[in-house]
Write a structure and sequence with these properties.
Order of helices and strands of chain A: EEEHEEEHEHEEE
Helix content of chain B: 25-40%
CATH architecture of the largest domain in chain B: 2-Layer Sandwich
Strand content of chain A: 15-25%
Oligomer: heterodimer
Shape of chain A: globular
Distance between the termini of chain B: 54 Å
Strand order of the largest sheet of chain A: 1-10-9-3-6-7-8-2
Strand order of the largest sheet of chain B: 12-11-10-13-14
Number of domains of chain A: 1
Largest interface: A-B, 34 and 35 residues
Chain lengths: 159, 419
């Protein structure tokens, strides 16, 4: 980010009583800064948010997508690639406004369209998720579980 | 890091108001995300962000208005979610209708022209050869780059408006000469001349091209020098629907391709693809999803928005007869005014053609809710129709569409596809 609007959310506590020891998994390139935490959800095919995600429910709405019906809200969403309409920026903004956005977005390939949705949401006073780039094969090697995304792009497994 | 000029930094410092600062922050953020190291001044913009997707889009546009935003360059508007000329044409609940209208009005308050068309290039907005612009709407982007030789990347919601307000765009991709050269040679010389002379060929060619080349820049050889602007428009719209095509060259036809060498910059293409009969047939079949395509419940034409010439052809085909099923023709209000002035509009409406202005049937609910089979001569309608309207689609020529709408069942000239 250059002079981009960045209003990172508070990081939260990484360790809780009884939680397994945190393990740093990888360091991703920060496209839009911030921190977030949630269960990892790996999309099994590229997606266009416009036409592919219902902004009110936060669920995958394209019946042809292998993850049809999955809820992306609050997850660390792993998107192998975004495709399709540039109106996907608008859908990201709607997800953030509706409270159904992911806690963080990890992309296999940098994409300005989803990131711009977050940039604009923050301009409008919402706290949008961080967006990061982690190319293959690292992105494919992320284990299931609860992930914490740190300000500097560190991906930490916390549960 | 993006290197901003002092004028550009002045935007960030608020010299052009809060909206100017916001817009420059977004443009600079985009430049950083896209790997551009500086911005480029633009001569015009075409904004796609005026279509309602949810209340966030309204909040964004109204924030720009409240912050004193004004577009810095001539800016046209793509379709909105309402037909402002024909109230009641769009089925929308009170909230959606009110918010869609607010979003459209906010863009007017920013100083944009109320063109409400996806074919701004046929509504008087024609940037010059080599001119840097920031355009949204995939078909308009393909047309501006390919047919006009202007230079734009693919701009979408939010960034399009921010470019218009700052008069700047990230300098990357197709804004740069070196990225505009064809790397794929597409040879269509084998296609029968008779077929290449027909409008119905071009959306099928475009559909195939989009799937074949994606974001690569192609140089097509073997199309006739007589290829019309509306045929190129249909080709680009289909290619930008099935793939992310933003620029193609047609050797001997489009301005950056007087010769193959000019299109490729003198370099050998990375690959050569020859269009064969079976490839074209596959693309043709792909444009129809109806499984029992004998019935036609509605016909829609005009994606991209119909030109005056296309309406003249429609009026000729109707020949004063009356249509048996709903027939929607989408266009811009500029063309509607021309049709009204020359008397064509009266002929069309007498035949039963329903004119849709300012919007179109795949972006907002217009088609009868019952669903069924939709026939179209538009590759873009054929692509988006099933997912956006729930209708199954049948693709055919404009002649086929009129004949089918008269008969109430599919009438298609298959002979033209013999190869």
């Amino acid at each position: 980010m250059v002079s981009g609007p960045s209003a990172p959310e508070s990081g939260g506590n990484d360790r809780r009583a009884g939680a397994p020891a945190a393990v740093d998994l990888a360091k991703a390139r920060v496209l839009v800064g911030g921190s977030g935490r949630g269960p990892l959800l790996r999309l099994r095919a590229p997606i266009s948010f416009w036409g592919g995600v219902d902004p009110v429910s936060g669920r995958i709405a394209d019946p042809r997508h292998p993850d049809y019906g999955a809820a992306i809200g609050g997850t660390v969403l792993v998107v192998p690639a975004a495709v399709g309409s540039s109106s996907s920026s608008a859908i990201m903004l709607e997800l953030i406004r509706e409270g159904t956005a992911p806690a963080a977005v990890l992309m296999g390939r940098a994409d300005a369209i989803l990131a711009l949705g977050v940039v604009v949401a923050r301009e409008l006073g919402h706290s949008g998720p961080p967006v990061l780039e982690l190319p293959a094969p690292a992105i494919d090697a992320l284990p299931d579980g609860v992930l914490q995304v740190l300000e500097d792009g560190t991906l930490r497994r916390v549960g | 890091m993006v290197d901003l000029t002092s004028d550009e930094r002045a935007f960030l410092e608020g010299t052009h108001g809060e909206a100017g600062a916001l817009a420059m922050r977004v443009v600079a953020a985009a430049a950083s995300l896209l790997g551009a190291d500086r911005l480029v001044e633009i001569g015009s913009a075409h904004i796609d962000g005026c279509l309602y997707h949810g209340d966030g889009g309204v909040a964004f546009a109204e924030r720009l208005v409240a912050g004193g935003g004004r577009v810095a360059v001539p800016t046209t508007l793509n379709v909105g979610a309402l037909d402002l000329l024909h109230p009641g044409r769009v089925r929308a609940d009170a909230h959606r209708a009110a918010m869609a209208r607010r979003q459209m009005e906010a863009y007017l308050a920013l100083g944009c022209s109320p063109t409400w068309t996806c074919a701004p290039y046929q509504a008087g907005h024609r940037p010059g050869f080599g001119e840097q612009v920031a355009w949204g709407e995939s078909n308009a982007i393909a047309f501006a780059n390919s047919v006009l030789g202007a230079r734009t990347e693919r701009y979408g919601d939010f960034l399009d408006a921010c470019c218009a307000i700052t008069g700047r765009a990230p300098l990357y991709g197709l804004h740069r000469e070196e990225n505009r050269r064809a790397t794929v040679l597409v040879d269509v010389a084998g296609v029968p001349e008779e077929l290449k002379g027909r409008d119905v060929f071009y959306p099928v060619l475009g559909t195939w091209l989009g799937l074949e080349v994606g974001t690569e820049v192609s140089a097509i050889v073997g199309l006739p020098a007589t290829t019309t602007e509306d045929q190129l428009k249909a080709l680009g719209a289909a290619a930008a629907s099935s793939g992310a095509v933003a620029l193609f060259h047609v050797v001997g036809v489009t301005p950056e391709a007087p010769t193959l060498d000019a299109a490729t910059g003198g370099a050998d293409p990375d690959r050569v693809v020859r269009l064969e009969a079976d490839m074209l047939r596959t693309s043709l079949d792909r444009l129809s999803t109806a499984t029992a395509p004998d019935r036609v419940d509605a016909v829609a034409v005009g994606s991209p928005h119909f030109s005056r010439e296309e309406f003249a052809e429609l009026a000729r085909l109707l020949a004063g007869r009356r249509l048996a099923v709903p027939f929607y023709a989408c266009t811009g209000r500029g063309v509607v005014a021309e049709l009204e002035a020359d008397g064509t509009l009266a002929l069309l409406t007498a035949a039963g053609v329903e004119i849709v202005a300012d919007t179109c049937v795949v972006v907002t609910p217009i088609l009868p809710a019952a669903g069924g089979v939709l026939m179209t001569c538009s590759g873009k309608f054929a692509h988006y129709g099933p997912s956006n309207t729930g209708y199954d689609v049948v693709y055919g020529s404009l002649e086929d569409c009129v004949a089918s709408a008269m008969a109430g069942r599919v009438v298609r000239d298959e002979e033209v596809w013999q190869w």
